[in-house]
């Protein structure tokens, strides 16, 4: 089967496995009505306004059409006076059950046939998805002020958990078990220490370049420094995940570093041909 195209695969009807499954599922179809009373009928029911259908509803062959309508009212919600019933006998053969005094037996109804309900009321509750389309149901929306007052809501539970965690952390800090972290610097604070356009040296590797960006980078926390490197010793071209933060000579001439790894000062561009023995 390896390398076969989709059109070469057997259809459901050609597949022996599917045929075996079909045979298993339908094995008792020939005798499914064998153990019921002689006057009992099991019928499928559909409705003109509803997507759903009812399978194997139980009726008695002696029930009049009027009594059948009363029974179906509890399923489709259509009052008996607004119902027209049609018997679908298979093969496109449909019969209008117009006489409400006649019984199902009078119309020759058999097991497995289908009764179709036509709702004749244009203002029916089931029309236009009235009984099935939940988007038409007006939802109750609780105001935030009222929700905040609830003591057993998810928001209240999360609020209590947060307050408890903060209290426990404060107690551990007071006891000397945890060293309180200093708040992270803002972009403005970092920019004052590492101004745009400054010459710098980046660790690791002592790479030199110029500060080309100071700020947040999408997908990572904190403030980052973008450096336009003198040599292709970086890992990008000033962009990350398709978003450009600064321009540079080309691929590998850019990098992003944490502020603590960037040193600003007199770091001129190195001459790769300079000798350590010359002044």
From TrEMBL:
Alphabetic keyword roster: Chaperone, Cytoplasm
Domain CAP-Gly: 215-258
The keyword rRNA-binding is assigned to this record: no
One of the protein's GO biological processes: tubulin complex assembly
PROSITE patterns: CAP_GLY_1, CAP_GLY_2, UBIQUITIN_2
Gene3D superfamilies reported for this sequence: CAP Gly-rich-like domain (2.30.30.190), Phosphatidylinositol 3-kinase Catalytic Subunit, Chain A, domain 1 (3.10.20.90)
Main localization category: cytoplasm
Record's protein name: TFCB protein
């Amino acid at each position: 089967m390896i390398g076969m195209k989709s059109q070469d695969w057997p259809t459901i009807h050609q597949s022996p496995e599917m045929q075996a499954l079909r045979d298993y599922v339908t094995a008792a179809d020939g005798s499914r009505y064998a153990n019921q009373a002689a006057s009992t009928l099991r019928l499928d029911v559909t409705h003109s306004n509803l997507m759903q259908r009812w399978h194997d509803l139980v009726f008695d062959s002696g029930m009049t059409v009027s009594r059948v309508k009363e029974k179906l009212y509890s399923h489709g919600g259509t009052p008996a006076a607004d119902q027209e019933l049609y018997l679908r006998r298979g093969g496109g053969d449909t019969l209008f059950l117009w006489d409400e005094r006649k019984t199902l037996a009078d119309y020759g109804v058999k097991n497995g046939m289908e009764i179709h309900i036509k709702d004749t009321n244009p203002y029916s509750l089931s029309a236009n998805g009235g009984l099935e389309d939940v988007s038409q149901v007006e939802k109750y929306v609780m105001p935030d002020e009222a929700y905040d007052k609830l003591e057993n809501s998810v928001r209240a539970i999360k609020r209590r958990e947060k307050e408890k965690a903060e209290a426990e952390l404060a107690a551990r800090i007071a006891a000397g078990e945890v060293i309180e972290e200093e708040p992270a610097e803002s972009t403005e604070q970092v920019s004052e220490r590492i101004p745009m356009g400054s010459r710098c040296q980046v660790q690791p590797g002592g790479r030199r370049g110029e500060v080309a960006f100071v700020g947040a980078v999408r997908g990572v926390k904190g403030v980052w420094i973008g450096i336009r490197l003198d040599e292709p010793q970086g890992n990008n071209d000033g962009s990350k995940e398709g978003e450009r933060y600064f321009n540079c000579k080309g691929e590998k001439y850019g990098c992003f570093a944490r502020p603590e790894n960037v040193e600003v000062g007199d770091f001129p561009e190195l001459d790769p041909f300079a000798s350590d023995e010359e002044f």
